[in-house]
Every structure is written in C-alpha cells, then in structure tokens.
Design brief:
The chain has 351 residues and is mainly α. Helices cover 48% and strands 5% of the residues.
Length: 351
C-alpha cells in the first residue's frame, strides 16, 4: 500500500521544478541521481530569472549584491548576501557551484567590514552579523567546511536559558521610553546585558546542522519549546541591546505563548525546522499541527492544509521558502506547499 509521503513525492516528481524534484529524490527518497540528470537539472535551475539575477549581482570577491541583511535601497529581494546565499542553498543541485561557493568564501573576506571589532562580540547570543552569517552557512550546507561552532553553541545556550528561568520577565530591565520598541504600556523592555534567549536564527542554525545532535540536546530543545508554547504571553518581545547600545530586535525572537499557527494557518517553516531538529515526538503542539498537515493530503498527494502564505511566499531574512519560480499557476503553488509539507512529514518520521 502506498503511504502518504510516497504519494506526495510522486506528485512532486511529476509536477515540481528541478530544485524540488532533485531534493525529493535525494533528501526524501534517498536515491542516487545519475550525473547527466543532475547536470540537466542544474542547468535548468541556473537559467531561472532569479538565479540569473543573483549571479549577475555577484562581485569579484564573491559577495552578492550591495547588502548584507536583506534588501535595501541598493539591494534587491534576492540580490544581497543573506537572502542570496539562503536561496542558492535551497535551490541548487551542486553545493559547490561557483556562485554559491564564492559567496560563502566572501563571508571570511568581508568579516572585518560587516562583523565589526566589538570586544563584547562573543558575549552576545545574537550578535547580528555573526548569527546571520552562521544561518547562511548552515542553510547552504557548509557546516563541514566553515566553522560556525560558536554560533551553534550560542543557539543551544539560548534555548537552554528558557528552561533555566521562571519567565522572560525575570531577565529583562526597563529602559526609558523609546517609540521604536515599546510594549502596549509605552515602556521599552530590553534583556539584561549579555542575556540569552532563542530566536528564529538560532532555530534555523540548529535545523540545518548536525554536530550538536545528541539525545540530551534534543530533549533540552523540546523542553524549551514545550515551555514557550505552554506559557502565557507577556504581551511584548524584549529587545537586545547590541553594538552601540541602541534597541535592536531579537532576530525574530520566540515569545512566551508562541504558536505554530497564525490566523492564516500553520507556519510551515517553523514546523519544518522543528521537525528537522527531531522534535515531532517530543512536542505535543508540534505533533498536533503535523498530524493536521498529514490529514490534509489528498489521494493525488497534494497538501491542502491551511497555511500562512506570507511566511512561505518568496524568500527573505525571516521567512519564505518558495522554490517555484512563481505562483501564477495553481500547480506551482501546490508544489511549494506540498514540498514543505513533505519535508515536515519526512523529518517528523510520519508516513
């Protein structure tokens, strides 16, 4: 009898673009793809408009575009180092393709320019440039050749901190009112100096790396998420004080009382990353959402779960996982949704 994931894989192999088909074959079905077929897929991917624009914006030193942390006035949605690297890492068949390999190398060459020389840099759990770089390296699959062990440890320490304290209000302080970062009462809250707290980048790093994995660490991660999801929200997200001391957001920090759903539906990206970390059987609220996704798959293998479209469409710094070139056709949208759902079930061990 064909199981659900086999049906999903079959639909994607017939309908999805080369990036998705290749990842289904190798990442999910664990099949070897003949070199000639791999080369053909890679050639098709390299000819896609977004990929061509990323290649065209690459500088001689390997840096992508004019920006680092996402788009700006001089850096387009994909034509910047962070989003460009993440997109290439998700899309390309060959991880050593020159455009990606040179972009990863550019991180080392540009470290002084973008990472700064703050003497307290190592004390921050989410020092902006470091955590962005580590997430890019992890997503692109370069953990084995680019040392991000420091940021992996910080990621684990940040989740562990959730299990060590009573509530987030125990580790914050009130700072004078600032209009750019205040809670509903008009008061700005920031974490205590050098405090640790998990954010989306920490989860991204752990989801796409292997060296940290042990039963103890996975159990700790599950305990942190169970506590976060079981807590009542204080109604605000504290800010980190970084660099020159101005209020800086937490890189998508997780809140007490966090949910895997918005009003629009399931956050497929968060569910995928948590399943990648081995949490399906350890976090009941995750398992509940994954089971809903499984039950929404039809006989063709297409996922019909309600999902947060804004969190999947395109690709950016904090969200996005669209690998199809566009969603002008319903089948392309269905392929992206079904692919993410397949990864969730695959890494959750659900058949």
């Amino acid at each position: 009898m064909t199981n659900i994931t086999d049906k999903m894989a079959g639909f994607l192999l017939e309908n999805a673009n080369p990036s998705i088909r290749y990842r289904v074959l190798t990442e999910v079905l664990r099949r070897d793809v003949p070199p000639a077929e791999r080369d053909k897929m890679q050639a098709e991917i390299l000819d896609e408009p977004i990929i061509r624009s990323i290649i065209a914006c690459q500088k001689e030193n390997g840096w992508l575009g004019n920006g680092f942390h996402g788009p700006s006035k001089t850096a387009g949605q994909y034509e910047n180092q962070e989003v460009g690297v993440k997109y290439l890492g998700e899309k390309l068949v060959y991880r050593d393709a020159p455009v990606l390999k040179n972009a990863i190398s550019a991180f080392k060459a540009a470290e002084n320019e973008y990472m700064g020389d703050n003497g307290d840099r190592d004390k921050y759990a989410a020092y902006g440039a470091d955590i962005v770089m580590a997430a890019c390296v992890a997503r692109a699959g370069y953990e084995d050749s680019f040392d991000i062990s420091r940021e992996i440890k910080k990621s684990l320490d940040s989740f562990r901190r959730v299990t060590e304290i009573g509530k987030v209000t125990d580790i914050v302080k009130i700072r004078k009112k600032r209009p750019e970062r205040v809670n509903p009462d008009g008061i700005a809250y920031v974490f205590n100096d050098y405090e640790k707290w998990p954010c989306r980048y920490h989860l991204d790093i752990l989801a796409h790396t292997q060296s940290w994995r042990s039963e103890e660490n996975i159990a700790m991660l599950a305990a942190a998420f169970n506590k976060l999801m079981g807590a009542s929200s204080p109604g605000y997200v504290p800010a980190y004080c970084v660099d020159v001391g101005h209020l800086v957001g937490c890189c998508g920090a997780f809140t007490e009382g966090m949910e895997l759903c918005t009003e629009a539906g399931v956050r497929l990206d968060l569910a995928e990353y948590m399943c990648r970390c081995g949490l399906y059987g350890l976090v009941p609220k995750l398992r509940q959402k994954v089971d809903i996704i499984r039950d929404s798959v039809d006989e063709r293998g297409v996922c019909h779960a309600s999902f947060d479209e804004a969190a999947l469409r395109g690709m950016g710094t904090y969200s996005g996982g669209q690998l199809e070139v566009d969603w002008k056709k319903a089948s392309r949208r269905a392929s992206d949704v079904t692919f993410r759902a397949l990864l969730i079930l695959h890494y959750g061990g659900v058949k």
